[in-house]
Design goal:
The chain is built from ten helices and 20 strands. By secondary structure, it is α/β, with parallel strands linked by helices. The protein is globular, with a radius of gyration of 21 Å. The chain starts with 12 loop residues before the first strand and ends with a helix.
């Protein structure tokens, strides 16, 4: 059996130290035994990666329901890493930062990319301020929107930044216009081994890379462009179907409602399973949240809760107890582009949202705080 996932590139470094294949098990055990909890998760994955097993068990984030176990092929994870390297022109010796938990696929794939592509990877404890204690510069990093929001002044330390895990608010996108880094919003999930499509956000940058040129020529602020050898279509629910033979043995049918431009470009509209039926009117939370993001600067989300008259009524939850409900109600009623059906019927101010292990808002558990 050709265990090609054991082909660790010579340039690979972890926190400044070169490690060969036979040395990684030792560092893995050390991280588990002596490291902090986030380091232990790195160690566990390294040991898992070093086995002869062809697959890895990964759990979904649980942000849209109960976390579920997914079996991924190491072959596909290697292919995903290579595709990312081609997409963003990553080369042996480039530096990268791991600031996401290795309990999820996003953190695991940063390690895989480093080993497969020969990157010099530094890791820091996952937090909402990943760059707070480092002045180092990096060629590549991945973050969730909350980390980006809290790192605006330090973002020039990152050459290319990919952002995923949750939609990026319009207000944050506007702030990123002033950042010199190359920043890409990503679309993907555990089943697709992180991103299968990207779109450029932030400042106006042109580079010769084929994928980046495709992204720039396809309505940068609106549409995602798939990575090479990946095509998309829609099912009868208008949900995205992904065909990516190098990372999945079968097509991946999602619950993401999209507007399809062609087989390599699409616009994400929202989750099929989150659509709210309020008095016969179908409301898409993600579209409403995109509109509200221009007037709400704390974390927030909208949801549908049972209502005797409407079936479901639209409510707004804001992670800020200091906000004036009266003023916020007034702003929503007069917000341009927000229809009368999209104006929340109630607003709840919450001290802090409950999060999943990967740092996403756990909407179901957060909603229980108001019941």
């Amino acid at each position: 059996m050709n265990l090609y996932w054991h082909n660790i590139q010579p340039a690979f470094k972890l926190n400044g130290v070169h490690y060969k294949l036979d040395e990684l098990s030792e560092i893995g055990y050390s991280l588990i035994k002596e490291g902090d909890s986030f380091e232990a998760s790195i160690g566990v994955f390294l040991l898992d990666w070093l086995t002869d097993m062809q697959t890895v068990e990964v759990y979904t984030s649980g942000s849209t329901g109960k976390p579920k176990k997914i079996i991924l092929k190491k072959e596909h994870m290697v292919n995903s890493a290579i595709a990312t390297g081609k997409c963003f022109n990553l080369s042996e010796g480039d530096t990268a930062l791991l600031c996401l938990s290795c309990s999820g696929i996003a953190g695991k794939m940063m390690l895989v990319r480093a080993m497969v592509l020969g990157l010099a990877l530094d890791y820091v404890a996952p937090s909402s301020t990943p760059l707070a204690n480092t002045h180092s510069t990096y060629d590549f990093a991945a973050m969730v929107p909350l980390q980006v929001e809290n790192s605006l002044e330090q973002l020039p330390q990152i050459g290319t930044l990919i952002v995923g895990g949750a939609p990026i608010a319009k207000s944050l996108k506007e702030k990123l216009e002033l950042v010199s880094s190359k920043i890409f919003e990503t679309y993907g999930m555990t089943e697709t081994i992180t991103h299968i499509a990207v779109k450029r956000i932030g400042n106006d940058y042109v580079k010769s890379s084929t994928v980046e040129n495709q992204v720039r020529s396809s309505a940068v602020e609106t549409y995602f462009t798939t990575l090479p050898d990946i095509t998309v279509s829609k099912d009868n629910r208008d949900c995205l179907v992904i065909s990516a033979p190098h990372i999945s043995d079968s097509s991946v049918v999602t619950n993401d409602v999209v507007e399809l431009i062609d087989d390599t470009h699409f616009k994400w509209l929202g989750r099929y399973d989150s659509i709210i039926n309020s008095g016969g009117i179908k409301l898409v939370p993600e579209q409403i949240e995109a509109k509200l993001s221009s007037i709400i600067h704390s974390r927030f989300f909208v949801a549908g809760v049972p209502d005797d008259t409407l079936g479901q009524k639209l409510i707004l939850l804001v992670e800020d107890e200091q906000v004036s409900k009266t003023e916020l109600f007034q702003k929503t009623r007069t917000l341009k582009g927000l229809t009368k059906y999209e104006v929340p019927k109630e607003i709840y101010l919450i001290k802090s949202f409950i999060e999943t292990e990967s740092g996403k808002i756990d909407r179901e558990k957060t909603l229980l705080q108001i019941s």
